[in-house]
Amino acid sequence: INFVYWLMSTSLKQKTISGMIWNAVERFGTAFFLFISNIVLARVLSPDDFGCIGMLLVFINISDAIVDGGFDSALIQKESPTPTDYSTIFYWNIVLSIFLYILFFLAAPLISSYYKLPLLCDILRVQGIVLVINAFSLVQRSILKKRIAFRKNAKINLVAVSIATSIAIVSAYIGWGVWSLVVKSLLTAIILCAGYWLNSQWHPIRIFSRKAFASLFKFGGFIFLDTIINTIYLNLVSLIIGKRFSASALGYYTQALKLADMPRSIMSSVVNNVSFSAFSSLQNDPVRLLRASKMGFKSLMFIHAPLMMLMIVIAKPIFTLLFTEKWNHSVPFFQAICVMGLVYTAYEYNQNILLSAGKANLHFAVRVVQCVIGIILINVGLYWGIWGFIAGFVISGYVIYMVVAFFVKRVMNYGLLQQVRDIAPAFMVSLLAAVAAFSISLLELGWHYVLVMLIQIIAFGVIYILVCKLLRIGELDIFIDILKRKHSALH
């Protein structure tokens, strides 16, 4: 952040720093509301309810990516979009979303028959309306992003999520079941749409330009393909679990994914957003880019590795405390996702390096390789049932990290061996702390599981910090120095 601040003009500095702060507020605030609502809803609803929605989200997420089409990024990237550009994309989004909703409406009986769940037909026809609602606000959202108006964006999102989740919780308690999750999605989309319209101060004009569409698609089309492939691949797991196994199995997996992915995605998003801006400015200075990439990678994994290890250790008490014992079947899923999460953040960071260096073609190539490797390993794992399937999914994460590290080696001479050497100390100390913390649960002290979990967390943190201090791992000193500066600034 300090580098970005030094790099930019005074007016842009203020906007950028403010944007980063409000972006963090939005992400952490939204995550907090969703986390709380997920805990409450999980206690009221069943794994089957979450599994039903998980099945439908496969189709909704892919359709959202199609409607966006990369035009959101294209409008933000273009230096001076015209009213014609905005209006053209606005009308395109609406027409495409309506077309996709009609397909959903007609295909709903086939989808419900495929999953052998008749209720899915009505749910999909109602849930699919979210596509059309979202399409009405995509351009307005892009305008706020382009203006770096993250403060408004944060307020809109926080209001939408807080109201929608509150009503969904009430709906669940009065017995609406799976429909309370549908209400949550619809209300969130409606409030977001209203908020973007009220705050963007833009309205479409009556024009659609093929020239403007072609110009924006030239940039956005590449991002569109990347997004579609990634969205399909990430949702493929849910699709296979829901069809091959059961709705309840998908519900357990969905719950595990939500909890495991929340801290990882927040951390990864914040780091990648900042590093992308900074690294892009250094793409013509390979020496400084390499130095910055190494420092960022080591700092990220210094926090991320122990976090994932700790979550693996305390997985069962976390689920029992938050969701009750009926969700304990999610624990193995959760632990497997955390094992993959150890390297998936490293994979995303490396992908970000490729984009920052202007290698969008390599970024896309790695994405394709990721999908091919993942599909092969997942299908091989299916021969051993659901756990073989999950094992294939986890292993694919480690293989694709090796692949992207190979390309980063070609671009800036920072390959797999160098990266492993840089983060090995943090991984080894995390593993040591995890073994010590896990051993506490084997002592059979007879204490309440919450107390044991708290002792495990404290023991893990103390061991990790002390050993890092003894080994003189530099990242610890960096974070301690940051905390000291923040403390001094407050006083």
Could you characterize what this model shows?
- It is a single chain.
- The protein is mainly α.
- Helices cover 86% and strands 0% of the residues.
- It has 20 helices and no strands.
- Helix 5 (83-115) runs antiparallel to helix 6 and helix 5 packs antiparallel against helix 7 (129-135).
- The two termini are 22 Å apart.
- The model is unreliable at 1-17 (pLDDT under 50).
Radius of gyration: 23 Å
Strand content: under 5%
Biggest sheet, open or closed, and with what strands and sense? none
Distance N to C terminus: 22 Å
| Number of helical segments with 4 or more residues | 20
Structural class call reads mainly alpha
**What would you call the shape?**
globular
SS elements, strand count: 0
Q: Into which percent range does the helicity of residues fall? A: over 70%
Order of helices and strands: HHHHHHHHHHHHHHHHHHHH
Uncertain residue segments: 1-17
- Mean pLDDT rating: 77
